[in-house]
Design brief:
alpha+beta; five-stranded antiparallel beta sheet; 2 helices; elongated
Length: 77
């Protein structure tokens, strides 16, 4: 029984480890940048945060948020 348990446990651990990994090339640093609407003047730039996978997809495909004369967009690099 012990001979079967250790290899099975090791295989299962490795399998879960491989599936849960996100490739490093699918991550980017994104920052919220607020522009004065109709111009390219930056009003505010927040610190960049790393996003990966579905979170990155959501940031890159989000619509600008317009409040008054300011427009905030996500910029990912």
């Amino acid at each position: 029984m012990k001979r079967l348990f250790l290899p099975l446990f090791a295989f299962t651990s490795i399998a879960f480890g491989v599936v849960s990994c996100v490739p490093s090339d699918s991550c980017k640093n994104c920052e919220a940048v607020t522009y004065e609407s109709g111009t390219s003047n930056v009003v505010e730039r927040q610190d960049a945060v790393e996003y990966c996978g579905d979170d990155l997809f959501a940031k890159e495909n989000s619509q600008p948020v317009v409040v008054g004369s300011d427009s905030t967009v996500w910029e990912c690099k």
